[in-house]
Design a protein that fits this description.
By secondary structure, the chain is an alpha/beta fold. It has 12 helices and 10 strands. Strand 4 and strand 5 form a beta hairpin.
C-alpha cells in the first residue's frame, strides 16, 4: 500500500459501517484521524469491525478517537462499563482523600483498556477544566473546583490511562470552567485576566504538562487576554501553552462546526476553510469538523496545507499500536 502521511483534519463517519462517501473522504491526504460518536456504535464486535476497516484504508493507519469521559459524555455503552462522571471522584475526595485517587486511577485504566480492546487509539480525556461557577456544558465533567485537588485526581486518572498504554488528551485549554455558556451553541465570554487564570485554570496544565500527550483548545473568548479565542490564538497556543508551559505534544482544535468557533470569525469572511486555516496558523496540529459532511467536503476541497512526514510522525505518536 502506498504510504500517505497523516494530515491535519479529523472527521467523523456516518453510521455503523463505512459508506463509499466515508471511504473517499478518509482517503483524502488532508485527513489524519476519525472521531466516533454514539451513532457509530452498536456493540463491541460491530465497532471493532468498523475501526478495522478505517485502519485498513491508509498507511500509516488513520487515528481513531472517541469522547469516552464517563457520566454524561460516554459514546460507547452497550457492552462497555458505564463510567462515573469525573466529579464523583472529587466528591469522594471530600470525604475520603486516600481512596479517591485510587478510584480515579482505576476508572482511567478501565476506560483505556476497554477502548484499546476494540481498536480505539485514544479518548479525548480527561477534562482539565476547573469549575469556578455553574457551567451547563462542563458541570460534573470537572474533577473538582479546587485546582490542586483536581490536579491530584487528574494525575491519578492519567496514570491509569498510561498503565494501559493510552495517551492522555487534556481539554479544554486554557479552561472552560469559568463560563456558564455552552460553546456548542454560543461563544462564551470569560472576563478574567491572565493572572487569575494562571492561579486557577492553568494549575493542572502546569503541574501535569509532561504527563499529557495532547491538548484540545476551548472555544471561549478571554477578551482581557487576547482578542482571539484560544483555537485561533497564537497567544494562547504559542506563547502560553508552548513557551510558558513548555508543552510539546499535539494541539487539537475543538470542533470547528460548533457555534463558538463560528461566532469567533468575521461573519463577512466566515467559512470552514477560514476557521481551519486560522486554527492551523495559530498552532493547532489537527482540526476537527464533526456532524457536517458538507463542511467536511468544503474543507477538504479548499484547505491549503502541505502534509509532511514531520506532522504525520507527531500525530502517529498518539497511536495505540505505535506502528509507524
Amino acid at each position: 500500500m502506498k504510504r500517505t502521511p497523516l494530515g491535519p483534519v479529523m472527521l467523523d463517519v456516518q453510521g455503523l459501517a463505512l459508506t463509499d462517501e466515508d471511504r473517499k473522504r478518509l482517503k483524502h491526504p488532508l485527513v489524519g484521524a476519525v472521531i466516533l460518536f454514539a451513532r457509530n456504535y452498536q456493540n463491541p464486535v460491530q465497532v471493532t469491525s468498523l475501526i478495522t476497516e478505517i485502519k485498513s484504508l491508509r498507511q500509516p493507519q488513520l487515528l481513531v478517537a472517541v469522547d469516552q469521559e464517563g457520566g454524561r459524555v460516554q459514546r460507547f455503552k452497550e457492552g462497555f462499563t458505564i463510567l462515573p462522571a469525573a466529579q464523583s471522584f472529587g466528591d469522594l475526595w471530600n470525604s475520603d482523600k486516600q481512596n479517591a485517587p485510587m478510584r480515579a486511577f482505576m476508572s482511567g485504566a478501565l476506560m483505556a483498556r476497554e477502548l484499546l480492546d476494540v481498536g480505539v487509539d485514544f479518548s479525548f480525556a480527561p477534562v482539565f477544566d476547573v469549575t469556578s461557577q455553574e457551567s451547563e456544558v462542563i458541570g460534573d465533567r470537572s474533577f473538582h473546583s479546587n485546582p490542586d485537588v483536581a490536579t491530584e485526581l487528574l494525575a491519578a486518572y492519567i496514570d491509569g490511562m498510561h498503565s494501559m498504554g493510552m495517551v492522555a488528551i487534556a481539554k479544554h485549554f486554557p479552561g472552560h470552567g469559568g463560563v456558564s455558556g455552552d460553546s456548542h451553541h454560543c461563544l462564551p465570554q470569560d472576563d478574567r485576566g491572565i493572572d487569575e487564570i494562571r492561579q486557577h485554570d492553568l494549575i493542572p496544565y502546569k503541574t501535569l504538562v509532561n504527563d499529557i500527550e495532547g491538548v484540545m483548545t476551548a472555544h471561549v473568548a478571554f477578551s482581557k487576554c487576547d482578542p482571539d479565542i484560544p483555537t485561533y490564538s497564537k497567544y494562547w497556543i504559542e506563547t502560553i501553552l508552548r513557551r510558558e508551559l513548555e508543552f510539546e505534544g499535539v494541539v487539537f482544535s475543538d470542533d470547528l462546526s460548533m457555534q463558538g468557533a463560528i461566532d469567533a470569525n468575521d461573519q463577512n469572511e466566515s467559512s470552514i476553510v477560514t476557521s481551519a486555516q486560522r486554527a492551523i496558523n495559530a498552532g493547532c496540529d489537527m482540526v476537527l469538523v464533526c456532524n457536517r459532511a458538507d463542511l467536511a467536503d468544503e474543507l477538504l476541497d479548499g484547505l491549503k496545507f502541505d502534509v509532511s512526514e514531520k506532522l504525520s510522525g507527531r500525530l502517529a505518536r498518539l497511536s495505540s499500536s505505535k506502528n509507524y
